[in-house]
């Protein structure tokens, strides 16, 4: 069944702040095998012009995807999450995420489409820091694959 | 932000050093923990096959994280990335054979933009198949 077009433009309340920990950044950098000292060495990060260690570019997805869960699991939208795959992902950075940031995410449904039985939802997550400054925007395209014909 | 590469030193077509990234089941378990994405298709072979996949597949966000390293290792400052987007076209299948899979990433400067930024187009393949589409980053150079 096609998803309800009236959800386009809907914005969800900002999430509770996520505090970015330096050890969480280290764990993420190790998991992707990235030895850049900008992620683990405060002095190296400062030498690059950052106030503290920064997070790898895709780190913020863990925060925005959790926020997108509000949309995905909205019973009124009715997306079949068991059939959802990640279609596209894009980020636009005002500045890198860094240790000590307390980040909130405001998710908005940008588009809802049905193509060949697949339901497609585009979600924009605006990430702000504790001072209310914009840090990064994440666009996530989720595709709920068509159920097989019974 | 202090990229080590100068805007003046690159031109359209400049190739970035290509890299290969190994991925094993252990890699995926570590990534699951670090990212909080515990979807069993990324570590449970039985589950993956039940939902129609050939085997356990890598997180798309893991592949995305590796691909941008061709850019961040080149610039020297990961904070110099201004934009980054990909399309997940094919899964990276990770067999439990002690070897796993390899993701091969290449990049080249596709356009010189305003404000000392360039657009880098990336290609990522695994087992001869393109795994990311429309993989592009905008990065600010010195």
Provide a descriptive summary of the structure in words.
- The complex is a heterodimer of chains A (150) and B (142).
- Chain A has helices at residues 22-31, 42-47, 61-72, and strands at residues 18-19, 84-93, 102-115, 118-128, 134-144.
- With 150 residues, chain A is an alpha+beta fold.
- Chain A starts with 17 loop residues before the first strand and ends in a 6-residue tail after the last strand.
- Chain A has one domain: Hotdog Thioesterase (Thiol Ester Dehydrase, Chain A).
- In chain A, strand 3 (102-115) and strand 4 form a beta hairpin.
- Chain B is of the alpha+beta class and 142 residues long.
- Chain B has a single domain (14-140), classed as Thiol Ester Dehydrase, Chain A (Roll).
- Helix content of chain B is 23%, strand content 35%.
- The N and C termini of chain B lie close together (8 Å).
- At the A-B interface, helix 1, helix 3 and strand 2 of A face helix 1, helix 3, helix 4 and strand 2 of B.
- Chain B: Residues 13-123 form the MaoC-like domain.
- Chain B: One of its GO terms (molecular function) is fatty acid synthase activity.
- Chain B: Belongs to the enoyl-CoA hydratase/isomerase family.
- Chain B: One of its GO terms (cellular component) is fatty acid synthase complex.
Strand content of chain B: 35-45%
The CATH architecture name of chain B reads Roll
Strand content of chain A: 25-35%
Helix content of chain B: 10-25%
- Number of DSSP E strands of chain B: 6
Biggest sheet character of chain B: 6 strands, antiparallel
| CATH superfamily (homologous) name of chain A | Hotdog Thioesterase
How big is the Rg of chain B?
16 Å
How many domains of chain B? Answer: 1
- How would you state the average pLDDT of chain A, rounded? 93
H-E order of chain B: EHHHHEEEEE
Structural class of chain A: alpha+beta
Q: What percent of residues of chain A adopt helix (DSSP H or I)?
A: 10-25%
- CATH superfamily placement of chain B: Hotdog Thioesterase
Number of helices of chain B: 4
State the strand order across the main sheet of chain A.
Answer: 1-3-4-5-2
> Could you say what the CATH topology of chain B is called?
Thiol Ester Dehydrase, Chain A
Largest sheet: number of strands, sense, barrel closure of chain A = 5 strands, antiparallel
């Amino acid at each position: 069944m096609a998803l309800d077009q009236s959800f386009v433009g809907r914005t969800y309340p900002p999430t509770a702040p996520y505090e970015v920990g330096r050890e969480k950044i280290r764990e993420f950098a190790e998991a992707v095998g990235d030895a850049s000292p900008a992620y683990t060495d405060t002095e190296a990060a400062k030498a690059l012009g950052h106030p503290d260690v920064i997070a790898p570019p895709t780190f913020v997805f863990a925060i925005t995807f959790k926020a997108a869960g509000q949309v995905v699991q909205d019973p009124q939208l009715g997306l079949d999450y068991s059939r959802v795959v990640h279609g596209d992902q894009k980020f636009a950075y005002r500045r890198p995420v860094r240790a000590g940031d307390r980040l909130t995410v405001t998710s908005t449904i940008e588009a809802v489409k049905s193509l060949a039985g697949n339901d497609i939802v585009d979600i924009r997550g605006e990430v702000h820091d504790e001072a209310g400054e914009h840090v990064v925007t994440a666009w996530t395209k989720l595709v709920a694959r068509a159920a097989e014909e019974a | 932000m202090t990229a080590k590469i100068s805007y003046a030193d690159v031109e359209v077509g400049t190739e970035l050093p290509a890299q290969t990234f190994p991925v094993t089941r252990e890699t995926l378990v570590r990534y699951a923990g670090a990212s909080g994405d515990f979807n069993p298709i990324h570590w449970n072979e039985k589950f993956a096959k039940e939902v129609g996949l050939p085997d356990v597949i890598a997180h798309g966000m893991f592949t995305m994280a590796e691909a941008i390293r061709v850019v961040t290792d080149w610039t020297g400052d990961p904070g110099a990335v201004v934009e980054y987007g990909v399309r997940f076209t094919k899964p990276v299948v990770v067999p439990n054979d002690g070897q796993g899979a390899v993701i091969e990433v290449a990049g080249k400067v596709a356009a010189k933009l305003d404000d000392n930024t360039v657009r880098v187009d990336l290609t990522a393949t695994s087992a001869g198949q393109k795994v990311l589409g429309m993989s592009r980053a905008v990065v600010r150079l010195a």
